[in-house]
Design goal:
There is one protein chain. The chain has a single domain, classed as Vaccinia Virus protein VP39 (Rossmann fold). The chain has seven helices and seven strands; from the N terminus they run ααβαβαβαβαβαββ. It has helices at residues 2-16, 24-37, 51-63, 74-87, 100-103, 123-130, 153-161; strands spanning 41-45, 66-71, 93-97, 111-116, 134-143, 167-169, 177-181. It has a seven-stranded mixed β-sheet, sandwiched between helices. β6 and β7 form a beta hairpin. The chain is globular.
């Protein structure tokens, strides 16, 4: 399958260049969730070479829906544009080169699935900013919540203070996620 070959090529690149990305196991779980939930409009906050965006877009392309993804690094952004085109998913991706903390308040759309994989110490801020930009019956996924728990303490405090129900899911040994469904 061409999609899987492309994803393996990206994986080789990020391993060779020490670029962090979600694992294939994590990507498969999230793709299945996107499919089951029948996601229509997705928001992603930060990725490295956009391995996750391309994974998600393969599911969204099958349903005719779209993903908006935000990146702050011009180098990563330009690499992503090339990867989107090569993966033939560029028509369903709205890539934004900007600081997520500044651009999220300006977004006018509502989302039914949000994937937060940005600066870990700002996870709480990302969550607060997207809270009013999600549809009813939405899903929010926050990545790397055990590996970087010490950097995310404000997120855990916020979840407890606001009494937000969440689950910590061990997708694979070093890449757990928080899932919030409302």
């Amino acid at each position: 399958m061409i999609q899987e070959e492309f994803l393996h090529k990206l994986k080789e690149h990020w391993i060779k260049n020490d670029i962090p990305n979600i694992s294939f196991t994590n990507a498969r779980f999230l793709r299945d969730l996107i499919k089951i939930k029948q996601v229509k409009n997705m928001l992603e906050i930060w990725t490295a070479n956009w391995f996750s965006t391309i994974n998600f877009s393969f599911e969204l392309k099958n349903t005719g829906w779209k993903i908006t993804t935000i990146e702050f690094s011009p180098n990563s952004y330009n690499e992503a544009l090339k990867n989107f085109k090569e993966a033939e998913v560029d028509e369903i991706i709205n890539p934004i080169l900007w600081n997520a903390l500044d651009i999220i308040p300006t977004l006018k759309e509502k989302y039914d699935f949000v994937f937060i994989d940005g600066m870990k110490k700002r996870s709480k801020d990302f969550l607060e900013l997207i809270w009013d930009k999600v549809e009813k019956d939405w899903i929010i996924i926050i990545d790397d919540v055990i590996k970087f728990k010490e950097k995310m303490q404000s997120l855990y405090n916020f979840l407890e203070e606001q009494k937000i129900n969440y689950n910590v899911i061990p997708i694979d040994p070093d890449d757990w996620i928080i899932m919030i469904i409302k």
